[in-house]
User: What shape does this take?
Amino acid sequence: MGDSLYDGTIGTVKSAMETLANLLRKAEESPKADSLLAARLYEDMQPLSFQVHIATLMAERTAARLSGRDPAVFENNLDSYAKMHQRVDTVLKSLTAVDKDELKQHADQVKPTQLPPGLEFEVSGSSLAHGMTMPNTFFHLNMTYAILRKEGVPLGKRDYLMPFLTDLTPYTIDKSGP
Assistant: This one.
């Protein structure tokens, strides 16, 4: 991975979506798979399905803003693993379509942005990615991991980190083991 704005935004969010896909595959293998979509870390927090919805929504907003287009509209309707995998795949395609040169044009472009809805700020694409959409992507990715661990899904640090690590080295990393 090079040291560029593209790698630090789009590349990083792509790895987050690959981690999310990995966590969902592990969840599907669990004997409790059917009940996990409604599982919560704590009773006043949103369920797993919502965490996946927001993680993918924020990743899509990162791709959209840094490519100068409107983000896709995603409904909070992830009621199956198939729908969650489809959403992650859609977002990965969106991220992959971001052109590095185009990103440079939109990263510094300041324009009105709703943060949160109802409050409008003038913010650059880069500032939005680093200050809002990426932190939200990671927050909800981490909540997904935490919910699944709480529910007994056998996940470890490697399950979370491997998509990030594979971009750091030109060597093949053994993904099995501790």
Summary: The radius of gyration is 16 Å. The chain has a mean pLDDT of 91. The helical segments are 5-29, 33-36, 48-67, 81-96, 100-107, 125-150, 157-165. The chain is about 60% helix and 5% strand.
